[in-house]
Design a protein that fits this description.
heterodimer; A: about 200 residues; mainly alpha; 8 helices; B: about 170 residues; two-stranded antiparallel sheet; 6 helices; about 0% strand; flat
């Protein structure tokens, strides 16, 4: 299990955390008029990659806007593709049971999909269903813990409104970074586990 | 501050593990509760406990259309779920008992359930498109098939995760 507690504080280990948080808050502000969403999503994807790679400087620089925008658009596509079935099911009369299960499954599998894209930088890797199901099956306890952390981060992010409203920009960006850390670490552990199983299998 | 963050993280970790270990039991309990409430609502209305009954109808109204003509009547009032939903939740519950680590139905049983679920799905689609209307008993059976089919997928997957843990 990754260090869940570290996800609350790791971003402050970066020497330039304040300036990076200000840039992130600006992305959050621009997300209100949609334009900031791809940049924000791209930044989160870059942060996931850094978490996976155990980089010494935990937060991305965020100055390559073209790269962030491209990655963010792909991340957005992944989210849309993942939730389209839930959206369709929600219109089916008595589709409640299916919608609930699909949404829960989507929320559990999302960290694997986004981290997979962040690490490989290849959208095709998200469609390798057999491997994704295998990763989900072998790491479901970690993914469930991450899902609970998502709920906790969301609550704390909303509490940012108490800081004269503008605090929400910082707390929600901070929450995104915390989740990025967890997604990267969970995927890293999943891949390590998979390698161990493969090596063990080869040895026998 | 730091110790409280560690505490929150530990709680999330424990909850995640609890969720994983008891997923089957959680799903079973929730399904059973949904079904029990669907039956309890008309019973409470019949015996005159209108307020409690109304609350249950409102709660279950979030997951079902509750058209009175499509619900099984219990006493003088319709159930809080339509007959297809009752069938679906019942089928799902039965699947949770059928698919476990200790007992894994063979290919033939799985194929049969899959086929019946497909028939249930086709019936639902035909009904939704207005091609024909079916009586409540048919809807109940069709829902039962759908629920069992969905349960087969869900609980097979859960069985596999349980096997991974016990390895």
């Amino acid at each position: 299990m990754p260090d869940l507690a570290k996800s609350f504080t790791y971003m402050f280990e970066d020497k330039n955390w304040l300036s990076k948080m200000l840039v992130g808050a600006a992305f959050m502000l621009l997300s209100g008029i949609i334009i900031g969403i791809p940049f924000l999503a791209g930044y989160v994807v870059a942060a996931i990659k850094r978490s996976y790679d155990d980089e010494e400087v935990p937060l991305p620089e965020g100055d390559n806007f073209g790269d962030l925008f491209g990655k963010g658009i792909v991340a957005f596509v992944i989210v849309v593709l993942l939730y389209i079935p839930a959206f369709i099911l929600s219109f089916v009369p008595c589709g409640g049971l299916l919608t609930v299960f699909y949404t829960l499954l989507a929320m559990l599998v999302f960290p694997i999909l986004i981290a997979r894209y962040a690490v490989t930088n290849d959208l095709n890797s998200v469609f390798e269903f057999n491997e994704i199901i295998e990763l989900l099956r072998d790491n479901i306890a970690n993914l469930a813990a991450v899902l609970i952390m998502w709920i906790i981060f969301s609550i704390i992010a909303v509490l940012g409104v108490l800081a004269i409203g503008i605090g929400f920009l910082f707390t929600s960006f901070w929450a995104n970074l915390g989740l990025a850390y967890l997604y990267g670490k969970v995927y890293q552990e999943a891949m390590k586990k998979k390698e161990t199983v493969n090596v063990g299998g080869d040895a026998t | 501050m730091n110790s409280s963050l560690v505490l929150i993280a530990e709680a999330a970790d424990s909850l995640g593990r609890f969720f994983h270990r008891h997923l089957r039991m959680i799903l079973r309990s929730v399904t059973l509760a949904v079904l029990a409430l669907a039956i309890l609502a008309p019973v409470l209305r019949t015996v005159g406990l209108g307020t409690t009954s109304r609350l249950i109808y409102q709660l279950e109204g979030n997951i079902c259309h509750q058209e009175p003509g499509r619900c099984i009547r219990i006493g003088s009032a319709p159930a809080a779920l339509c007959s297809r939903c009752v069938g679906a939740y019942l089928g799902f519950l039965l699947s949770s008992l059928l698919f476990s680590v200790r007992f894994r139905p063979g290919r033939r049983v799985r194929f049969t359930i899959g086929l019946i679920a497909l028939a249930g799905l086709v019936d639902t689609i035909f009904h939704l498109t207005g091609l024909y209307d079916t009586p409540n008993l048919y809807r109940l059976i069709s829902g039962l098939a759908l629920g069992a089919g969905l349960g087969m997928l869900v609980f097979r997957f859960i069985s596999e995760t349980e096997t991974t843990v016990s390895r």
